[in-house]
Amino acid sequence: MRVIVTRVQPQADSWVKQLSDRFDAVALPLLVVTAAQDVQPVLDAGRRWPGYTAVMFVSSHAVHYFFEQNKALAPDIKVRDASLTRAWATGPGTRAALLRQGVPPALVDTPALDAGQFDSEALWHTVQPQIKPGARVLIVRGDTSVAHGGTDDTEGNAGVGRDWLAQQLRQAGATVDFVVAYQRGAPHWSATQRALAQTAACDGSVWLFSSAEALQYLQGLLPAQDWSRARAVATHERIAQTTRALGFGVVRQTRPTLTDVVASLESLA
Question: Which end of the chain is more exposed for a tag (fewer CB within 10 A), N or C?
Fold first, then answer.
């Protein structure tokens, strides 16, 4: 069975490699990610790190591009007392990215591995006791790049969760700051990629979706495509809803871990 992996690179190639021993996995990214055009706010946020109660990263890309501009920050974090600034991650992928940057595991908060979902709601359940009136939290996020065809500031499930989390923090008496560390946009497909997508819409392939925004770009890339014969696995409820709204005939929802994704794919084999 062919699986269409739509994650951004290099994550797409990594997932293809992990799935290739069970499926005919093919990378067809529906998002491209680049550094923010204005990096000065990211540099300023890095200098303010010690003043924050916590810094929340919406994705592994947020981690990468934040620390790319603040290379000296991670070694500095290592020597700080663990009771100071926390690093928040919504899932294991973002947690792993923080650890690769040298952030000590004791400083990283993320939902439990057996959580029903890895999102801002699950993260809030974990970190809520840390927040007292007067706390300061920085949210490191992406933004939609107009240059790549974006038209709004929606980040799929991450964007909805980000705004929800900020609301919870403010209601608890915290001050919330945002900084844009990277930009997202639509890919520019080759004729071969376009043909692959059109074929995969009706030949029994299973699409793997991890972003609602990516689905918006898919609709823009193939606006007249009939998806009624297409099948998909989505890694969050909101992504599954967007997939169904696009017209996919079969949509399975799963947690975004490799084990759960493989189980959902095998159920469609």
Answer: C
User: Under CATH, which number does the domain 34-185 receive?
Assistant: 3.40.50.10090
Residue 59 contacts residue 158 (beta carbons within 8 Å)? yes
Task: State how far the Cα of 269 lies from the Cα of 120, in Å rounded to an integer.
Answer: 32
User: In the structure encoding, which two tokens stand for residue 198, read together?
Assistant: 């059109």
Can you tell me the distance from the alpha carbon of 122 to that of 195, in angstroms, rounded to the nearest whole number?
39
Strands (E), 17-171: 24-27, 32-35, 54-57, 86-89, 108-109, 136-144
pLDDT of residue 180: 94
SS3 136: strand
Other C-beta atoms closer than 10 Å to the C-beta of 215 total 23
C-alpha to C-alpha distance for 254 and 173, rounded to whole angstroms: 34
Q: What is the pTM of this model?
A: 0.80
Q: Which residue has the tokens 């290099």?
A: 10
190, 220 Cβ separation under 8 angstroms = no
Taking only the tens place, the pLDDT of each residue in 4-20 is 999 999 899 999 999 99
Q: Tens digits of per-residue pLDDT, 67-77?
A: 999 988 877 77
Q: Is the pLDDT of residue 239 over 70?
A: yes
The three-point CA angle 35-36-41 to 5° equals: 125
